[in-house]
Amino acid sequence: MTFESRRETALKILSTSETLTRKAGSFLGQCVADECPLSDRQQEWFNQLADRAGVNLESVQ
After folding, report:
1. Model pTM greater than 0.70?
2. Where are the domains of the chain?
């Protein structure tokens, strides 16, 4: 996943999910602003947040 696609996905999650925790919102904000690659654990959490928000990762990549 490129930074731009990750950024786009994170913004979609932030705008569609109504049940994000403060920690999840902060993490997604980091994904929008920071170009550093995600660790495996962070990528797994990102994928879970996208799934819960109903955001299709394949359409963004």
Report:
1. yes
2. 3-60
Distance CA 45, CA 31 (A): 12
Q: Which comes out higher in pLDDT, residue 58 or 51?
A: 51
In total, the chain counts a number of residues equal to 61
User: What is the Cα–Cα distance from 56 to 36, expressed in whole angstroms?
Assistant: 22
Does residue 4 surpass a pLDDT of 90?
Answer: yes
The sign one gets for the Cα dihedral 50, 9, 55, 17 is positive
Q: Which of 4, 24, 38 minimizes the C-alpha distance to 50?
A: 24
What gap in Å lies between CA 46 and CA 31, rounded to an integer? 9
Could you give the CA distance from residue 34 to residue 17 in angstroms, rounded to a whole number? 21
